[in-house]
Give the backbone structure.
Amino acid sequence: MTNKLLRSFVLAGTAFLIVSATAFQAAAGIAIQANYLDDAGEGFYDSTYGSDRQTAFEYALDIWGNALQPTYAGETIVIDARFDSLGGSSTSATLGAASPNSYHNLNNTNKVMYASALGNHLQGLDITNSGTGSEGQALFNSDIDSDSSVLTGYSWYYGTDDNAGANQFDFVSTVLHEIGHALGFAGLIEDDGGYDDFSGQTDGTYYSQYDYFVVRTSDSTPLRNLSEDDRIEAATSDNISWAGADGVAANGGSLVKLYAPGTWEQGSSYSHLDESTFSTELMSPQYTIGTGHEISSLTLGMMSDMGWSIVVPEPGTFAVWSFMIVTVGISKRRRRTKRQHVA
């Protein structure tokens, strides 16, 4: 996928409910654990960066885990993680990618497939490989640290203090974004308008729980009810939105506009919030400096629509504020990649 390097002024003046790692000191969340897949001396085990990478990654996992309320004792999500050479140019590169490891059809009575972590959550037990497997995977670009020809002059920032410099990409915020995809913030439409086929379901009509809430903006018709031609037309004409009740409520009662550029972008189109409308949101497709280590009420509302139980902070442990931010920085498109899908 082509990733554009943008120099942008981002101006926001909207009130949000923000949750962070410190907002849930008295609340019990879901344990999200890392399973590092890199070889010795590489990636998360790199002699120079490995320790800082692990600290930042696990810090981001805690933010997500603390925002989600478990439905059964010992509920745990395992994320496979690694760094790899993803290449790029001096002005363009992929920062990271993530996806659920598998999908499950829970009741065999409809066409909905649930990301493995969400399926476990809704079933109230670990159905992923009999409780021994991982639920998601995340991949990050090691070339940003090691190859001066990739995003020349830029590097990863592994601190947990949200203090990345102007020429740095904050790793924690990137991980937060990617983990959202691994938890199910992802649609399954392909470039022909059909849905990704699953093992055992090969007719291309099984859609994800995320897809269930996606509609054609102009008439609020669910995309799952459209023909393949009409579906891909909507998804490439800036004409799709999220219609889940909690997401809409967090958006002031309006449909939540999704990213639908005129040219289909596999892994980015419609599995993100619209960049122009929500440029400072965690789940927008482009990285923007200064967005913080936070999960807003909009993202949590959409996760709630899909079936995640959201932790409600105790009074006095969270902040609601209006903010005006102007950032000048570099924007990199992030992407979601699809992996194995099983029944």
